[in-house]
What does this fold into?
Amino acid sequence: MKTKRSKKTDIPMSVKKKVFERDKGRCVICGNYCNVMPNAHYISRQKGGLGIEENIVTLCTELTQNKCHRKYDFGTKEERLKIKEKIRKYLQSKYKNWNEEDLIYKK
It folds into this structure.
């Protein structure tokens, strides 16, 4: 049985569809449109990142040359920080009152 936190950090299909449309079916880091998925949390699930549009972006999967999602999750500290900053700026450009605190699960 899923916890409330687990349910809130999951990404519903409706959110994935909206994010994919918002991101125009492309990786928000490199612009690739093949083998991309709207399933990357800006604030990670481990840190309570919600599965909402304002916290989710489309990134390249393992099947691409750039592998942006893998670099974001497992790259060097420098790679992860660089990608996180690009995602932050991207999300800020899409949502007028975007605030990192609003992206975290609170009991």
Summary: The radius of gyration is 13 Å. Residues 18 and 68 are 20 Å apart (CA to CA). The chain has one domain: 4-95. The chain has four helices and two strands.
